[in-house]
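Quiz preparation item.
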């Protein structure tokens, strides 16, 4: 049974379709079957899907592809634009999910409440490869190369990552940025031959420690400091907004974690469980952005991680 990687792009976003077109200009592609009105192209064990909706709107593409073709989807990689208040040019990599949303809440950017996709083991290795390729194409320091926290959809239950170009239309349309993203995928998946990058099944015997990021801002600066070191694996990155916690002083004054409202436990648990499925035999270690928490928050989070059996690590524990 054929195992394939799905690459997904949308024609309505230049930061999505441009890297896809750059890839299609490379050797070896042939037309594949259509999935309703979604075109596909094949190259070795890679399938590139092009649709014309929002990138976060097409749910369950993995299941739908398997039903159409009989192929087994191993991982899904999405091309997308990135927006930021700063408008700073950036190339970003991140896992997806909205694990903090409660049933009945409406995800504004796709996904479903309480869900986190299994994070691609390639996230850490590809961030480092992206930095190398971007530097060789003179995009650094103009473009920031960074992780983002776990956020948005679409729904998939395969190991997943997003590759994004930011942060304004001028940069979404940059062909040099699109070329760098395409080269990252071409080299990272070894489409042209050689050895792929970030293959957990092959590489984890050297280091099976996986960083689960807890706390901090959207661009995970404390976690980035660790992930840029060679050999570090990274899973979900739960920024502060993905850890809603209600101050117990506002209720009964009790500070044990049972009294702390909010969906923070659900968010951590869903992300941890998705990580265990993505990294079999991995040692999942939480890395906390300690400065981003108040003392009662840190106490509650460390207690809950202990209940889950998750070790809390310092930077040196990931190498």
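Solution:
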């Amino acid at each position: 049974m054929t195992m394939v990687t799905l690459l997904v792009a949308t024609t309505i976003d230049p930061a999505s379709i441009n890297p896809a077109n750059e890839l299609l200009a490379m050797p070896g592609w042939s037309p594949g079957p259509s999935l309703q009105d979604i075109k596909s192209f094949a190259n070795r064990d890679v399938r590139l899907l092009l649709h014309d909706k929002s990138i976060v709107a097409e749910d369950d593409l993995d299941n739908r592809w398997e039903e159409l073709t009989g192929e087994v989807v191993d991982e899904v990689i999405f091309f997308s634009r990135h927006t930021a208040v700063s408008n700073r040019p950036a190339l970003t990599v991140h896992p997806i999910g909205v694990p903090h949303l409660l049933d009945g809440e409406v995800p504004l950017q796709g996904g479903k409440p309480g869900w986190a996709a299994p994070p691609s083991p390639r996230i850490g290795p590809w961030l480092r490869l992206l930095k190398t390729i971007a530097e060789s194409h003179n995009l650094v320091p103009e473009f920031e190369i960074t992780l983002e926290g776990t956020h948005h959809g679409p729904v998939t239950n395969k190991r997943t990552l997003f590759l994004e170009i930011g942060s304004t239309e001028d940069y979404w349309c940059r062909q040099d940025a699109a070329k760098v993203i395409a080269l990252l995928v071409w080299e990272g998946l070894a489409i042209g031959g050689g050895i792929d990058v970030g293959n957990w099944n092959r590489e984890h015997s050297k280091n099976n420690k996986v960083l689960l990021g807890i706390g901090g801002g959207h661009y995970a600066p404390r976690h980035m400091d660790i992930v840029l070191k060679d050999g570090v694996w990274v899973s979900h990155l739960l920024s502060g907004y993905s850890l809603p916690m209600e101050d117990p002083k506002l209720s009964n004054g009790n500070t044990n974690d049972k009294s702390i409202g909010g969906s923070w436990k659900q968010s951590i648990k869903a992300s941890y469980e998705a990580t265990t499925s993505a990294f079999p035999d991995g040692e999942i270690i939480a890395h906390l952005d300690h400065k981003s928490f108040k003392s009662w928050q840190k106490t509650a989070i460390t207690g809950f991680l202990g209940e889950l059996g998750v070790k809390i690590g310092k930077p040196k524990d990931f190498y």
